Amino acid sequence: MGPNDELAEELRASARKALDDRMPTTVLRQVIDTEDGIDRSLYALAADLGWLGLTLPESVGGSGGSWHELAVVLEEIGRALAPLPMIASVVVAAGAVMLAGDDEQQQRLIPGIADGSAIATGALFGASGRPDEPLAARVERRDGSLVLSGVSGFVPDAHVSSWMVVAATDGAVPTLVVVDSSAPGVRIERLDTTDVTRRLAHVHFDDVVIPSANVLASADAQHVIDELVRRAGVAIALDSVGGLERVVEITVAYVGEREQFGRKVGSFQAVKHHCANLLVFSETARVAGRAAADAIDGARWVEWAAIAKSYSGDTYTEATRIAVQCFGGVGFTWEYDIHFYMKRARLSQQLFGSPTYHRQLLTRELRSRTAD
Amino acid sequence: MCSGWKHVDKGERVHFDYSDEELSFRKELKGFLDGELPVYFEFFDLPQQERFDRSMEFVKKLAARGWLTPAWPVEYGGSAHAPWQQMILSEEMIAHGEPRTGQYMNVNWIGPAIILAGTPEQKEYHLTRISNGNVVWCQGFSEPDAGSDLAALRTSAVRDGDEYVINGEKIWTSNAGVAEFCFLLARTNSEARKQEGISIFLVPTATPGVEVGDIDAVVHPGAFHHVVFTDVRVPASCRLGPENEGFTIVRKLLANERVGVARYHRAAGYLDRVAKWCDERGLLDDSSVIETLAHARVACDAARVLVYQVWDERTRGLHPDESAWVYRTAAVNAERAVSEAAFKLMGAEALVRHSHADNQFEWATTAGIAGGSYEMQLNSLARVLLGTKG
């Protein structure tokens, strides 16, 4: 427990209230049936409540807070399954511009993210949306301009973005450019994926002209991409922490009500063990997720980020599988909420690096430290 | 007679291979199926109505060749001499998307139940139609408050002269939307112990008072229904077997339901696709990829040899409850292992809705629940092992 915890708990209470009021699953069910699948008025509220600018500097419209507070908001969003494009816009897109952009770019692009008037995303990977595959987008210089072509797969929230940070190869090395989502040559192919609470798209680039002001001035783009994978990974781990907590609650409530053989099903030892395992997963993921959030920029950040993302990815999926088992047949009806968590867990496990990928990062990190 | 699987016994060898005769049957069957049907995934992907229409057409052809009910006694339209043919059929059917759709239940246990307990009239009427491939059945077992605890069912059938009057609700009734008959469990004595007051009824679904609705499920959309019975009057001749002995009959037959469709064979077929996907991307040199694929493959093959053991015991006249439970858990593990392999190897690509990976995820999700939960199978096994009552 640190000195910030009172503040964090206040933030948690207000975030939970806002999401309980505005995004109960009855509302979520309506939002996922809309064309864009997000609730813009809730996004505006998130901006008003200061969630979007929480970790952005005051000079660009943020409040200069820490990941300790952002963690609270991300957990509450995961708990509520809230369809908000916050990780894509704030953590990835704004994160990229803050890490790799110059003053002009930051002043031009970040205030809109902080006040919610713009949504952005990051298209950082190749066709399969994985960090461990080659990029499938490239830039070339043609008649004095920079031209982008190729594809970036499984990009979150691209369909509602006004701009995106794209990782593309420039010769042999990666580079990062900002692309206007409505620029000629950008085609956003919406995808229908298992997790109905979030939307992904393949983004195709067909000779998109990139103004020189939109090239992010970083010497080492790969380093920035790696850092964005870590940050987005931890953000997803925190979303999973909130989801896990809620999965424990609703599963325990259900097995405490449902009767078979003249008893509550929660009184059977097999079901008790399932519930106890859910709690172990939830508590462990929480400790790891919060440790990672507090470790950002510290000496053990790389290590904690990999632990949090890989652990939450595997346990959230396993916990929701067990939870559906506890619900029995109703677990796969639309009427009950548990399936939303099961599917959100599946996508979270894969976005911004699978557990396998993050475990490999962890091993490399530990080995490099031993070598030092 | 050479059979594919020999019982593991003192001095007796275990053969994992099918006999030449059985292999040539498999080859002939495959040739027939390849000519009649698109490959598994395409058949499974057909719109529901088209899948059903093609199934009805296909099953009649299967019946005409004597391949619908080969394991039944000859007098009821079977060939009776080839128990392993039914296993081969089961595997090849699911490899082609289970083109019998709901009719596999007729063959596996509804027909056998009628053979076991039916009157001459019921046998004459129903068995002929089943073995000709002309009729779809649904199974009216589970209720909102009777899932794992099936014997707690409350749908009632009250005798009124020469009729019974049925009231109640059934859920998870696959094929109810297209079925002509429902194999219904209903309570005929509410005073007796819960297992001892249940009877079986063969109810025409066109009877007034039978209403079928859809369950809005997130998996296998359109596959699950609920059926409401409101003052449904059926003649007493619709009852199968003696009054109040339905549960005993069903318990015997459920061992067949536990074998069910050859899930492991379909899952293994899908795993081949995952392996191909990896191969196309040059991933098959990666030891962790090979390990993941092999792990799932072993889970499928473990389920396969276990079901062969069940089948072998059954052909020798035993009632292999215990092996059937072991097999069922292995089949669930196979479904899950293949689904996990797809996620692990394909990443987000495995999350595209209505893709084959998504379909496998649905099978894996329902596998541990449908037809008796995984935990219930373990309870049954533990009871046998530990000799405790539970």
TrEMBL record, chain B:
Molecular-function annotations in GO: flavin adenine dinucleotide binding; oxidoreductase activity, acting on the CH-CH group of donors
Domain Acyl-CoA oxidase/dehydrogenase middle intervals: 138-232
Domain Acyl-CoA dehydrogenase/oxidase C-terminal: 244-385
Gene Ontology cellular component annotations, sorted alphabetically: plasma membrane
Names of required cofactors: FAD
Alphabetized UniProt keyword annotations: FAD, Flavoprotein, Oxidoreductase
Residue span(s) of domain Acyl-CoA dehydrogenase/oxidase N-terminal: 19-133
Keyword Flavoprotein: yes
Sequence similarity: Belongs to the acyl-CoA dehydrogenase family.
Protein name according to UniProt: Unannotated protein
